[in-house]
Automatic annotation (TrEMBL):
The modification N6-(pyridoxal phosphate)lysine is found at K196. The gene is serC. It comes from Tetragenococcus osmophilus. This is Phosphoserine aminotransferase. Homodimer. It is found in: Cytoplasm. Belongs to the class-V pyridoxal-phosphate-dependent aminotransferase family. SerC subfamily. It catalyses: O-phospho-L-serine + 2-oxoglutarate = 3-phosphooxypyruvate + L-glutamate; 4-(phosphooxy)-L-threonine + 2-oxoglutarate = (R)-3-hydroxy-2-oxo-4-phosphooxybutanoate + L-glutamate.
Length: 359
C-alpha cells in the first residue's frame, strides 16, 4: 500500500532526496566516508555547508546584508535567543496568533530585562484569524515585532507581512519557510526549525540582518548570534548530516523551479483540499478563509467521535498522521513542499467516500 504522510513535522521528505542520501550514505563522493563520519572542519564538509548556504540564498533571494546561520536547539531555542540578543533593556512586541506565538511570548517573558508586549491577538476567536496590525499599535522604540508567519497547529497564515516602519519584524517561519514567496527584506530576522520544509530535525536556520547582530557578547556563547555568525555556524560541531540533507532538499527545490513554482503547486494542493472541505456537508474548516494556511489544513467533522473514526479509517487506506494536534483535536493535513498532489487527491476521494457512508 502506498503511504501518504500528512505529519506536521518531522515531515515527508522528497523521494529523490532520500534516494540520493541512500546512494551516498556509505561513500560520499569517493571519500569512502559517510557524511555522518566526517569532520565538520574537513574540506568536503566545508563545501557542503557553503553549498547549502548558497542554495538557500538563491532560493529565498536573501540580500547580501543578511547572514545565514545553521544552528541547533530547534525553533524553540530561538524563542529565548531572540530577546536575549535583540531586546536587552528594550521592548519586544508580539502578535499572538496561537500555540507557537504563545510559546515565543512565554519565553520572552521569562527574561527579566526585556519588556514583552502583546500588541494584537486572535485569542478572542480561538486563533482562527490573523489580526490586523496597524502602525498605531507599534511602539517606535521597540527592538522588534515578532510574528509567526504560519501557525502549524491552528492553520492560519500571514498572506501579507505587516508594515512595522523602522521596527524590524522577526518571524518564526518554521512551517512555511520556502513554501510562500515572502520577501526577506521585509524581515529583520527569520528563523525556522528544519523538520518541515528543509530536512531532518536537528537543524535550525536563522537569517538575520547584519545590523541586528548583537554588539555585546552574551553570557551563553551558543546563543550569541554574533559569535555564531563570526564562526560561520562552526562555533561548535554543527548538525552536519542535517545540513547535508538540507543541501539536497535545496537542490531538489531549485531543480523544480524554486519557490515561485512550488508556491503554485502548494496553492493547487491546498486549494483542492479546501474546496472539498467547503463543499462538504460533513467536514468544515474552523479557519477564516482569507487567513488559511497552505501548509497546515485543520478540519473537523460534526463530532469528535466521528473525527476519530475518520482518522482510523483513513490510516487503513495509507493516509497517515491526519490526527489534529492534541490541543485542538479534529484532523490536520500538513501539505509541505514534498507532499505530493496525488496524496491530496487520495485524501479528497476518501473524504467523499466517508461522507457518503456517514451522511
Ligand atoms: N514554531 C512553529 C511554527 C512550529 O511549528 C514549531 C514546531 N512544530 C516550533 C516553533 C517548535 O519547533 P522546534 O520543535 O524545532 O523547537
Amino acid at each position: 500500500m502506498v503511504v501518504y504522510n500528512f505529519s506536521a513535522g518531522p515531515a515527508v521528505l522528497p523521494g529523490p532526496v532520500l534516494k540520493k542520501a541512500q546512494e551516498e550514505l556509505l561513500d560520499y563522493q569517493g571519500s569512502e566516508m559517510s557524511v555522518m563520519e566526517m569532520s565538520h572542519r574537513s574540506s568536503l564538509f566545508e563545501e557542503i555547508i557553503a553549498d547549502a548556504e548558497k542554495l538557500l540564498r538563491e532560493l529565498m533571494e536573501i540580500p547580501k546584508n543578511y547572514r545565514v546561520l545553521f544552528l541547533q536547539g530547534g525553533a524553540s531555542l530561538q524563542f529565548s535567543a531572540l530577546p536575549l540578543n535583540l531586546a536587552q533593556n528594550k521592548k519586544a512586541l508580539y502578535v499572538n496568533t496561537g500555540s507557537w506565538s504563545k510559546k515565543a511570548i512565554a519565553a520572552a517573558q521569562k527574561i527579566e530585562n526585556v519588556e514583552t508586549k502583546v500588541i494584537a491577538s486572535s485569542e478572542d476567536k480561538n486563533f482562527t484569524y490573523i489580526p490586523e496590525i496597524t502602525q498605531d499599535l507599534i511602539d517606535e522604540d521597540a527592538a522588534y515585532l515578532h510574528i509567526t508567519t504560519n501557525e502549524t497547529i491552528g492553520g492560519i497564515c500571514y498572506q501579507e507581512i505587516p508594515d512595522a516602519g523602522d521596527v524590524p519584524i522577526v518571524a518564526d517561519m518554521s512551517s512555511n519557510i520556502l513554501s510562500n514567496d515572502y520577501q526577506v527584506s521585509d524581515f529583520g530576522v527569520i528563523y525556522a526549525g528544519a523538520q518541515k520544509n528543509i530536512g531532518p530535525a536537528g537543524l535550525t536556520v536563522v537569517v538575520i540582518r547584519e545590523d541586528l547582530l548583537n554588539e555585546a557578547s552574551l553570557f551563553a556563547p551558543m546563543l550569541d548570534y554574533r559569535l555564531q555568525a563570526d564562526s560561520h555556524s562552526m562555533y561548535n560541531t554543527p548538525p552536519t548530516f542535517s545540513i547535508y540533507m538540507a543541501k539536497l532538499v535545496f537542490e531538489w527545490l531549485q531543480d523544480l523551479g524554486g519557490v515561485p513554482q512550488i508556491l503554485q503547486e502548494n496553492q493547487k494542493k491546498a486549494g483542492l483540499l479546501y474546496e472539498a472541505i467547503d463543499r462538504s456537508p460533513l467536514f468544515h474548516s474552523p479557519v477564516n478563509k482569507q487567513d488559511r494556511s497552505l501548509t497546515n489544513v485543520p478540519f473537523l467533522t460534526t463530532s469528535s467521535q466521528l473525527d476519530k473514526e475518520f482518522i482510523y479509517a483513513a490510516q487503513k487506506q495509507g493516509l497517515e498522521n491526519l490526527k489534529g494536534h492534541r490541543s485542538v483535536g479534529g484532523m490536520r493535513a500538513s501539505l509541505y513542499n514534498a507532499f505530493p498532489m496525488v496524496g491530496v487527491r487520495k485524501l479528497v476521494d476518501f473524504m467523499e467516500e466517508f461522507e457518503k457512508a456517514h451522511g
